[in-house]
Design a protein that fits this description.
The protein is of the alpha/beta class. It folds into 3 domains: 415 residues, Aspartate Aminotransferase, domain 2; 244 residues, Aspartate Aminotransferase, domain 2 (3-Layer(aba) Sandwich), CATH 3.40.640.10; 177 residues, Aspartate Aminotransferase, domain 1 (Alpha-Beta Complex), CATH 3.90.1150.10. Helix content is 37%, strand content 12%. It is built from 33 helices and 23 strands. The chain starts with 6 loop residues before the first helix and ends in a 13-residue tail after the last helix.
């Protein structure tokens, strides 16, 4: 296909002549010589990626190869249940959200003024969860049902006042994968987990929490009201793992006494996808809101007194509380949560109830003519049979998967996709004839009588025209990568190419049940195996698990591998984790979750790990040293030349080295953590390997390790092929985590080839240094390497500017919105700074546009320091400027309207050819009051349409 331009040239923004121009600005004539001055010689790899990875393929060829791999999957009607169900994604949502870059390229809504669309959608998701569970407050999604249950366990431990040695109880009817994830999480925390029949808990048991499944994994619906009373009398909290669709017909957990509800919103319009990604959820009763992990969308007001949404309380709590954080989760499943919220809007309460009744009716018809173990049910029946193998064989002959129980039982879970034709096949499998159902599997005492989803947003958008326009209206309130550069340091917002995204919605990948027989999922397993091998080649490690479904989970898995490695050698006393003061906040929280104690290592004036302090801390802790966690290149945006020495010091003391993979975008093809001394890392596929952010999730955070740690990588009780038998258990609910989005990273690596991946890293570093060079006269660069160069990101030091002018990083961030840009990373890792990362995807015109916007803002700051205008009266302090502000009949500002609305044209600093490159983006909300939002967590707001 030689007539097609190489994908590498499509992915990398700057052209060859642009590269030459930027190199010239930096004083170089050759990119290899430039990289040699950036990457320390002692870690630069001699063996090139082009020698170990295949060459690049064209987009046409990659799609053809993916089609061939997908064809090796067999999409059966999977009625296995266990928390995963067939669902119908409404096409209007599939096309306009899941496949729409306006939604999937957005960043986490830390800048709420340019995130009101996705914040409104997330608030609607929270409303769905609160309404369905009848609990006071919900977060903005969790990673999956299993990890949500594990988080609920630790929430219960923090909140319960019972004795420290109290145990955690799990009902025998909880899904197997959830039990396993909870057990994995409990062990390093020293929590004892006991499996019980919740209806007959032994008297005298001291327990702080009880997890039940409602309906349970067998399909039975238990009235837990008396169980909840007994638990509360014992000082324990009750956690209900529940099913949103079932709750249209069942009494809500909050109505029978549950303190916490968790689960998955998957069957609200999100494909099974071989296990994910899906939006988990957690809702809590009043009194537990301050302990709620994850993200929470609340209401605040903007500078004009108008209501507006923002993230509240939990926004990046790990970076504030570090090892005291309640959770290491710093992400969510925003894209999938939004889809589920829109699914609820599309169907409304009446439509959801009709779907649930139809499913229940199929179950009732079959229940009346087979021998069921569970006499109560919503959608799932556990059926006694003479020979389960015969029944499974009949089902497979009709391309139907049933749930495996034992030799004399099978399980069947009905879902939204069942048709009369499929139901006829099911009755033939069991050799029965059915008639219209006469009864119900739901007892009167546990039927739902309360209303839900009464807000107008769930009762308005029933025509495709109205839904399409609503989705477009929300998207227009946001600023995503499809409009402009998002220069966030440490977050790597790069191109998510359409070809990479294409296979995600193919049914061969999207419609697989995670517990389908292995012979039906050979294509996905082949893709996983190939991707795993490529990641090993790229990083220099020996083994990888793709199961962790977020970077935070990969961190936990890596530290758990270290913990179990030490234990296997009789070194249980090794529990100290050394972490530099500059580290990502999740590092400390993950270490605590893995049962370690955090000791902070100071950084020197150049931003490097202090070797003197490291040596002192190693000497202090001796035989108790378990690990060092270090980000490389450092979170300060530099390649530390002493990294190999640092690793050697830790190894000599008997510890292990964890390299945080957040900054891998500066290493691919230039250095390998597995070769310069690291023992284990997590990789952020949603950064370096092109899985999009989705507004704050999904992500994939594989854990990758050297051979001696490989036996301790995650495994799974329901899939022997998903990890080593010696592993600690599952980190995520599904065997391969968020498997349906792995084709994105597979396609990126296949399209780029080894040489292209290396070139992408080189250009990412070049772009960052070009921007640093052009901005250094306006804003000091805080840290650089030995030759005055940075890695793939740079930190602008605004602290002295703030002292002189009063202009803060917040002011700069909000003013950038008037230029149509998202802010860089604010005040991390150093307060009062801005961290910029352009990535290799940004072309020179867009980078120049951003640079010139920053220079224009510096010009406005100089007007303040020169005494021409007070900071309180400046455009910087009043930014962002909405169209309502500009169009107001009164204007009493100290600067003209034109300066407010079109700052680029007023200063005269931006070249004429760059003016008008982009259509004017109007923030829909003025500056939002964060403190007000934290004081008013629960929204008492007018209908969502009022904000339209």
């Amino acid at each position: 296909m030689s007539n097609y331009q190489d994908f590498e040239d499509r992915h990398i923004g700057p052209s060859a002549s642009d590269e030459a121009q930027m190199l010239g600005v930096l004083g170089y004539s050759d990119i290899k010589k430039f990289i040699a001055d950036v990457v320390p010689e002692n870690i630069h790899i001699a063996k090139q990626l082009k020698d170990v990875l295949d060459g690049p393929k064209s987009e046409v060829d990659v799609i053809a190869e993916l089609r061939q791999i997908a064809s090796q999957n067999q999409v059966f009607t999977s009625l296995i249940g266990s928390g995963y169900y067939g669902t119908v994604t409404p096409p209007v949502i599939k096309r306009n959200v899941l496949e729409n870059p306006a939604w999937y390229t957005a960043y986490t809504p830390y800048q709420p003024e340019i995130s009101q669309g996705r914040l409104e959608a997330l608030f609607a998701f929270q409303t769905v969860i609160c309404d369905m569970t009848a609990l006071a407050l919900s977060n903005a999604s969790m990673l999956d049902e299993g990890t949500a249950a594990a988080e609920a366990m630790t929430l219960a431990r923090r909140s319960s006042k019972v004795a420290d040695d109290a145990v955690f109880l799990i009902d025998k009817g909880v899904h197997a994968q959830t039990k396993a994830v909870v057990a994995t999480r409990a062990k390093p925390l020293g929590i004892t987990v006991l499996e019980v029949d919740s209806l007959s808990i032994p008297s005298g048991t001291s327990y702080f929490g009880l997890l039940v499944q409602y309906p349970d994994t067998t399909g039975a619906i238990v009235d837990y009201s008396k169980v909840a009373e007994a638990a509360h009398d014992a000082g324990a909290l009750v956690i209900a793992a529940t099913d949103l669709l079932a709750l249209t017909l069942l009494k809500a957990p909050g109505e029978w006494g549950a303190d916490i509800a968790v689960g998955s919103a998957q069957r609200f319009g999100v494909p099974m996808g071989f296990g994910g990604p899906h939006a988990g959820f957690m809702a809590v009763r009043t009194g537990l809101e301050r302990s709620l992990p994850g993200r929470l969308v609340g209401q605040s007001v903007d500078a004009h007194g108008n209501p507006a949404f923002r993230l509240a309380l939990q926004t990046r709590e790990q970076h504030i509380r570090r090892d005291k954080a309640t959770s290491n989760i710093c992400t969510a499943q925003v894209l999938l949560a939004n889809m589920s919220a829109f699914y609820a809007m599309w169907h409304g309460p009446a439509g959801l109830t009709r779907i649930a009744e139809r499913i229940h009716n199929y179950a009732a018809q079959l229940a009346s003519v087979v021998d069921t173990e569970n006499k109560s049910y919503f959608d799932t029946l556990t059926i006694k049979v003479a020979d389960a193998s015969v029944v499974h064989a009949k089902a497979k002959a009709l391309r139907i998967n049933l749930g495996v129980v034992d030799a004399n039982h099978v399980r069947i879970s009905f879902d939204e996709t069942i048709t009369d034709s499929i139901f006829a096949s099911i009755t033939s499998i069991f050799g029965v004839k059915v008639s219209p159902a006469q009864g119900s599997g739901i007892a009167t005492a546990i039927k739902r009588t309360s209303s839900f989803l009464q807000h107008p947003v769930f009762n308005t958008y029933f025509s495709e025209t109205s839904m399409l326009r609503y989705l477009r209206t929300l998207a227009d309130r946001d600023l995503a990568l499809d409009r402009t550069m998002i220069p966030l340091g440490s977050c790597t917002m790069k191109l998510n190419a359409t070809t990479e995204m294409e296979a995600v919605t193919w049914p061969e990948f999207a419609s697989l049940h995670p517990f389908a027989p292995a012979e039906q999922t050979q294509g996905s397993r082949l893709l996983i195996d190939q991707l795993s091998k490529w990641l090993v080649e790229i990083t220099g490690y020996d083994a990888v698990s793709l199961q962790p479904n977020a970077g935070s989970q990969g961190e936990f898995a890596g530290l758990l591998a270290i913990r179990n490695y030490h234990d296997s050698r009789g070194d249980a006393s090794r529990n100290i984790c050394l972490i530099p003061s500059s580290a990502h906040g999740t590092n400390a929280a993950s270490a605590v979750m893995a049962g370690m104690k955090v000791v902070v290592i100071e950084c020197d004036e150049a931003g490097n790990v202090s070797l003197d302090d490291l040596k002192a801390k190693i000497a202090d802790h001796g035989n108790t040293l378990a690990a060092l966690m270090v980000t490389y290149p450092s979170t300060h945006g530099v390649f530390e030349s002493a990294i190999s020495e640092i690793c050697a010091l830790v190894h000599d003391a008997g510890g292990q080295v964890y390299v945080d993979g957040a900054n891998l975008n500066a290493l691919v093809g230039t250095a390998q953590p597995g070769k310069f001394g690291a023992d284990v890392s997590h990789l952020n596929l949603h950064k370096t390997f092109c899985i999009p952010h989705g507004g704050g999730g999904p992500g994939v955070g594989p854990v990758i390790a050297k051979a001696h740690l490989a036996p301790f990588l995650p495994n799974h009780p329901l899939d022997a092929l998903a990890g080593p038998a010696t592993g600690p258990g599952p980190i995520s609910a599904a065997p391969f985590g968020s498997a349906s989005i792995l084709p994105i990273s597979w396609a990126y690596i296949r399209l780029m080839g080894g040489e292209g991946l290396t070139h992408a890293t080189e250009v990412a570093i070049l772009n960052a240094n070009y921007m640093a060079y052009r901005l250094k006269d306006s804003y000091p660069i805080l840290y650089t390497g030995n030759k005055g160069l940075v890695a793939h990101e740079c930190i602008l030091d605004v602290r002295e500017i703030t002292k002189e002018s009063g202009v803060t990083v917040d002011d700069i961030a909000k003013r950038l919105m008037d230029f149509g840009f998202h802010a860089p990373t604010m005040s991390f890792p150093v307060a009062g700074t801005l961290m910029i990362e352009p990535t290799e995807s940004e072309d020179i015109l867009e980078m120049n546009r951003f640079i010139d916007a920053m220079i224009a803002i510096r010009y406005e700051i100089s007007e303040i320091t020169d005494g021409k205008i007070a900071v309180e009266d400046s455009a910087l302090r009043h930014a962002p400027h909405t169209i309502g502000t500009i169009a107001s009949s009164t204007w009493e500002r100290s600067y003209p309207r034109e300066r407010a609305a079109f700052p680029a044209t007023l200063t005269g600093l931006i070249p004429g050819e760059l003016i008008g490159m982009k259509g004017k983006y109007w923030p829909t909300t003025g500056r939002i009051d964060g403190a007000y939002g934290d004081r008013n967590l629960v929204c008492s707001c007018p209908p969502v349409e009022a904000f339209a």
